Structures are given as structure tokens and as C-alpha cells.
Amino acid sequence: MKQVITIGLDLAKHVFQVHGADAEGSPVFNRKLRRSEVLRFFEKLPACLVGMEACGSAHYWAREIAALGHEVRLIPPAYVKPFVKRGKTDSADAEAISEAVTRKTMRFVPIKTAEQQAAAMVLKTPRSSSAAANAIGQRVARASGRIGDHRHRRPGKG
């Protein structure tokens, strides 16, 4: 078996797709892994470059896989899309990630620590307080007739 140099890992809820490529970029394997199998799989592999699309869970997986000695890079999903050669499948996505992560001009997302991720989750709310206040202000203005009431406008004006 050829030595795997690059891996594209397509994350999902239950079944992940893994695409391994050699130094020339030729496919070595393309297989599915259950969530519980992922870390055991990477423990057995020699250190290599692992690419993933950046998302909330990608930061967790990046930290875990990097702890096993692999170099992990997160790619914004929009930068992976041009590398998908055929239909939108997990297998095609994993292959595209494997190819995209090797590009010299590719931009990557820094991997967040668990603390940075936790802080980011606290800051994200469904609606920021200023947006909520603005929405309430608009509802009050509408109810009082200051917005949406055209009866007091002169004809021909706005």
C-alpha cells in the first residue's frame, strides 16, 4: 500500500468520509468511518496532513487529531467547493478537501482552543440586544402610527 500523505475528512453527524492520497495526489483509499472509529483510525496512521471544512465541530476534531501528531488545517467551505469534481456527495467532498488542502495559495481558518470556542458560543445569541431593541422600537412606532401611516402625507410627496 502506498504511503498516505494527505487526508480529506468530510465531517457529518454519524458517518464521516475519509479520502487518503499519496504524494502525487493519487487516491489511496476512500472510506466511511463511524464517529467512534475516527480517533482509532488516525492513531494507526503515520503523521500526515489532514484537511477539514471549517465548522463548529471541526475545531474539536482538529484538536483531537492534531494531538495524535497529524498536521490539521481547516478550510472555509466556500474554498473547497471549486474542487468538487462531481455531484455533492460525502465521498466527493472528502476528495475535494484532500486536494484543496495541498494548494499553496489556500487560506486556512485558525483552529480554536476549547476556551475560544466556548467564549464564541457565549457571544452568539439569536438576536443581539441592539437588534432586539431596534425591532421593539419599530413595532412601537408602527403601533403609534409613526411608521406606515401615509394619511398625513401631502399628495405627490414620497
TrEMBL record:
One of its GO terms (biological process) is DNA transposition. Residues 7-118 form the Transposase IS110-like N-terminal domain. GO terms for molecular function: DNA binding; transposase activity. It comes from the Bacteria. Pfam families: DEDD_Tnp_IS110. This is Transposase.
